[in-house]
Every structure is written in C-alpha cells, then in structure tokens.
Please model this.
Amino acid sequence: MAEVKRRDFLGMALGGVAGIGAIASLVAMKRTWDPLPSVVSAGFTTVDVNGMADGEIRDTQWRGKPVYIMKKRPTDEIEAARDFELGGAYYSIGIKICTHLGCIPNWKESEGYFHCPCHGGQFTGNGVNMPGTPPPRPFDIPPFAVKGESTLVLGESGKEYQAMVDAAPKA
Ligand code: FES
Model:
C-alpha cells in the first residue's frame, strides 16, 4: 500500500515538472512569434518595439506585406544602409519577401539567418542576401519614420529611412 502511494506521488511530481516545462516552452514560443503591437490605418502601420529583447526578431505587416524588425545586440556590427537607431538601441528592418521569386523566408534562430524554403536562398539578420544563394539583392526596406522612443510608422518616409537609402550601395 505504502509502495503504491509512493509511486503515485512520484508520478504526480514528474507530471507536474513536465507540465511546468511544457508551459514555459509555450510561453517562450509565443513570445518569439507574437507579432509586434501595431495599429494599421490608411496604408500606415504604427508599431511599438517597446519590450523587445536584444537579438529578438518580431513580425508585423505593412500594406499586406510581411515585415520583420530585429533589435540588434550591443555587440552586433551596425550597417548604415540596413540599421537605424531608436530609443538608444539599433534595429534592422526589412520586407520579408525573397528577392529571388517572392517566397517568404523563415528566420532560423539556431543558424542566425533567414532561409528561403523555395530554392535555398539565405539572408543575414540585416536582410542582406548571402553570396552563392539565388536571391540577387537584399530584402527591400519599407519606408518608415521614427516617432519618440519606441514607435515606428511604416509607410512614412522619415530621416532615418532616408539615411539608410542614401547609404545603400548604388546599382
Ligand atoms: S524564391 Fe527564395 S530562393 Fe527562390
């Protein structure tokens, strides 16, 4: 009888630990894939990046197109043509449509790059096409304007966006 109770207790304890682990995994997944808080109106998308962690990538949309925003880590290299400052941190932004034939690449967290499932295209976290893969050019950058310390308005062309356009290599 005592043996049965002990087994029951161990079973419940292990079940509890597994349950807590599963819930923690789900919370982490939700945090990673949650779209950014955003408001869409008349061709503009207002996005709040407040609370993003260093290195985190979050998705939003602009005019029906998938857009990603990455918060750079303090140790990451900053590229004038691909990165901008907002509230004391740097971010990268791009329209997540493959410049080869228009598929939607996925972010590979473990590899640290975007992978296009169609023909194996790869893009860096800054959205630059990787040599030796099919995409001919980097992700397009949506026009955007910085507002305050944590807000972006996609669809408006602000000075940070213009600075990136000016710094881009000319074809
Ligand atoms: S559409 Fe992305 S590699 Fe071909």
